[in-house]
């Protein structure tokens, strides 16, 4: 599992993450919910090592990650789909996917499983990333993350600004990754109904602190919707 303890992070004088403690069990889909600006993305950046946490520890399957650079965390099996997708608009779909395999030796071919998960990417493989719709770009960003053959897939608000039919597809794909391919998924979300429909377990963050957590099936009973309502 992923184990985070005592994580603290600051931007200047602002205390953004406050003693964050959470676990993400192996082979399950865990959702982290929280309102705008509570520190969700900052936490994910600390997990990936693009921001160095001020204090605390992060371990994946008993390997301490806290002092490792981002590329070494990718080599340990972590992959990241950033908020806003960050695809390369002038590269083709296929080139965008190959960027995700840059840590592997001699990446040249897209594995069939990527195109099976996202048939639209196969149809559009020669098109520029920037020509895709928002939903297609999100699928591309997920496909790119899968190119490093991860064990732990971390996604930051993949439903943001995306049409409902593609949100459904993305939800199904994430469940498929967990159930059929054995991946562990950590998903940051603000869209409650989507989160509830696919979560095995959940955490809620407020002002840099974890304030609740439990089983996905109990989210309604635990009043999670109210905790994240704007
Ligand atoms: N590079 C930065 N420098 C200074 N402050 C920052 C920086 N990045 C984020 N912040 C601030 O830190 C706080 C947490 O931001 P963060 O992006 O982690 O929140 P979030 O929960 O992901 O929000 P959202 O739901 O809008 O994506 C916010 O108050 C934000 O304004
Ligand atoms: Mg964010």
From TrEMBL:
User: What Gene Ontology molecular-function terms does this entry list?
Assistant: ATP binding; ATP hydrolysis activity; branched-chain amino acid transmembrane transporter activity
Q: Which UniProt keywords apply?
A: Amino-acid transport, ATP-binding, Cell inner membrane, Cell membrane, Membrane, Nucleotide-binding, Transport
Chain coiled-coil ranges: none
- Output the GO biological process annotations, alphabetical, semicolon-separated: L-amino acid transport
Keyword ATP-binding assigned: yes
The record places domain ABC transporter at: 2-230
InterPro entries from the entry?
Answer: AAA+_ATPase, ABC_transporter-like_ATP-bd, ABC_transptr_urea_ATP-bd_UrtE, BCAA_Transport_ATP-bd_LivF, P-loop_NTPase
Name of one Pfam family that matches: ABC_tran
Note whether Iron occurs among the keywords. Answer: no
Source organism, top-level taxon: Bacteria
Name the protein family: Belongs to the ABC transporter superfamily.
Identification of the protein by name: High-affinity branched-chain amino acid transport ATP-binding protein LivF
Give the organism, scientific name.
Paraburkholderia saeva
Taxonomy of the source species:
Bacteria, Pseudomonadati, Pseudomonadota, Betaproteobacteria, Burkholderiales
